[in-house]
Amino acid sequence: MAKKKEEVVRGAQTSSPDGSRAINKFRVSDFVMMLFIVLLCATCVVPFVHLAAKSISGNSFVIAKEVYFWPKGINFDAYVSIFKDGSLVYSMGYSVVVTLIFTVLGMIVCTCAAYPLSKKRLKGRTFFTIVLMIPMYFTAGVIPTYLLMNDLNLLDTMWVLIWPLIYSPYNMLIMKTNLQASIPDSLEESAFLDGASNLQILTKIVLPLSKPIIATLSLFYAVGRWNAYADNMYYIKTDRLKMVQYKLYQMVASATEAQSATLSEQAAVTSTPEVLSAASIMFVTIPIICIYPFLQKYFVKGAMIGAVKG
User: Fold this and answer.
1) Residue 88 pLDDT more than 60?
2) pLDDT of residue 229
3) Any residues with CB less than 8 A from the CB of 107 and at least 6 apart, and which?
4) Phi-psi domain of 241 (left: phi exceeds 0; alpha: psi -120 through 50; beta: other)
5) For 177-234, how does the pLDDT look when each residue is reduced to its tens digit (9 = 90+)?
6) Domain that holds residue 57
7) Where does the record place the ABC transmembrane type-1 domain (predicted)?
8) Domain boundary among 57, 74, 91
9) Which of 44-48, 222-226, 299-303 has the lowest mean pLDDT?
10) Contact criterion met (CB below 8 Å) for 110 and 167
């Protein structure tokens, strides 16, 4: 009995005020888990640091493969070349406009599809859900899609980058699941008793309570549009209508075949292909890196809420 009392006292001494026990041993499994997380983070951070170092290093050091994680012969000639040329800067601004329009229209379509399907009072809800989920599993393919865009006179226009992709079955399913889990039916019933319409309930009750999932899906839409370049390759011929990711793809592909590369004749600074490619990648990637930290908490919370129930 005395030994049991001593064990209880020791256990109480190692417990924190909130009832949780303090960790007094560092096990091998903890070390392995931490090492795995560090290596996983390194796979994302190390390539970025390497590119950043090359983008501001001297050409001779980069050609000699002497630049790893710290720049040598620091200069900003590649960035000066990008801004003097202007084509990549214009594509950046154009890509921002397309991404904003695409995200806004995508969220409107996603909300208009998910909100009715989340209500049990909608007749034929299961049928409409199946119909709207078909594009998630079956697609027409590149050639039929190209012919359809041609018949709609959307080829070589800004709208061919927006209209075909604004509806996402996956995003709609996440929002529908979130609305079913987070918005109680009693809240909407009380609003109906007060004389509110469906549109008023959506704009004044549902959307203000759904900020995390809205931020999450907006991030999905924006990042997906920003990183895509296949549709640029298929549907766009005019240079001024090409988004920055496709311009970057063309630049890197052409630069690998040249000994030295410039963006255009207007760019006075000449850089090696490797330095110019690194600077261009950094120029395109930095906006996403600057925006993401402000939406990260909504991203994690919204993704978890949308994945709780099916």
Assistant:
1) yes
2) 83
3) 214, 217, 218, 221
4) alpha
5) 888 888 888 888 888 888 888 888 888 888 888 888 888 888 889 888 988 888 898 9
6) 21-74
7) 92-294
8) 74
9) 299-303
10) yes
User: 70 and 81, same structural domain?
Assistant: no
Structural domain contains residue 289 = yes
pLDDT the model gives residue 255? 58
Tokens of 121: 């009072």
pTM of this prediction? Answer: 0.75
Return the CATH number at 242: 1.10.3720.10
Residue 74 has pLDDT above 80, yes or no: yes
Q: At 211, list the tokens.
A: 């900020």
Distance CA 157, CA 241 (A): 7
